[in-house]
Each structure stands twice: as structure tokens, then as C-alpha cells.
Amino acid sequence: MEKIIFSIYFSKITKTMFTTSSTKKKLWCWTRQLSLLCFSIITGLIVFVYLIPLPKFMFPCRNSRLVSEYYYSPKSYINVIMDIFFVSMYLLLPWMIWNWKRITHLPTQLGITALTTGVLTFGFMMYFQSFPPTRQFFSRWFHQVGYFAIFYDIVLLCGIVTIYHYLFSYVD
Fold it and tell me: What is this structure's pTM?
């Protein structure tokens, strides 16, 4: 009997909770933001890595072999999928800060993105550089590229945020 009463009560709560117009609007807003963010990440990676080969411009000569290995090798589709995941994780923190503080101003969003990206990449760089170089790609990357990796990540993610901001204002 208690289970029946609880299930009836729970179904009434969930019906009222998920059918209110404000909840639908919030759900739509979050869904729209996430889909625009995913589209921005994929578009940004295509534009900045393949159309404007930003890694080749930023890491000429001595590190071009690493860049080619990661982005332009026959098995680079795995790295592209990993990059989408990494960029998503990198943008999760600034995106949560924007929503928490209700920040919509592009320069402020770019500043928060640059700061969080710089801190995260610096942490990963210090981690990989605290060990001797190995055959693992990111170990070789941070040992050879060093602080330029921070600059590259900041430029890439701020470009993606700019695309996101443009798409978000265009859709509204």
C-alpha cells in the first residue's frame, strides 16, 4: 500500500515538476546552449586545425613532426575525437562559471576561458614535465613545446568561444 501511495505521490510531483513552463524553458535553454557549444567545438577544430592550420603556424620547424603526427597522420581520427572530448572538458569549467555568474559579455567570457585554460594546461604541462620524457604523445608534446602549448590552447579555446558567442547571438 505504501509503495502505491509513494508511486502516485512521486508521479504527481514529477508531472508538476517537469510540465511547468519555466522548467521547459530552462531545459530548452540548456539544450540549446549545449548543442551550440558542441557545434562550436567541432566547427572551431575544423577551422583552426584544418582550414587555418594554426598548429603549423604556431609550432614551425622543430615541432612540425609532432603536429603532423597528432593531426595529420592516417590514424588522426582518434586524436580528433580525443580533441573534441578534451576541448569539451576544458570548456566545461568556464561554461559553468558563465552560467553561475550569468556572464554574457564576450570579453569577460574570453578572459575566464583564457584563465581557466591557462591554469589547466599549465597543470598538465607541469605534471608531464615532472617525469622524464616517454614515448607517450603528451609527454613528448609538453617536453618539446613547453609553454607554447599553453598559448596554443588559449588561442584555440578562445576562438571556439568566439564562434559559440557568435552562434548564440545569431540564434537568439
Answer: 0.82
DSSP symbols for 5-72: HHHHHHHHHHHHHHHSHHHHHHHHHHHHHHHHHHHHHHHHHIIIIIIS-HHHHHS-GGGHHHHHHHHS
Q: Which residues, in sequence order, are CB contacts of 85 under 8 Å at separation 6+?
A: none
- Residues 25, 29, 96: CA angle, nearest 5 degrees: 130
pLDDT band at 172; cut points 50, 70, 90? low
For the segment 39-55, the average pLDDT, to the nearest whole number, is: 93
Q: pLDDT band for 46, please (50, 70, 90 cuts).
A: very high
* Amino acid (1-letter code) at residue 35: S
122 CB-contact burial (10 Å; exposed 0-12 / middle 13-18 / buried 19+): middle
- Mean per-residue pLDDT, 4-23: 50
Q: Measure the CA–CA gap between 45 and 51, rounded to whole angstroms.
A: 9
Domain limits, the chain? 26-171
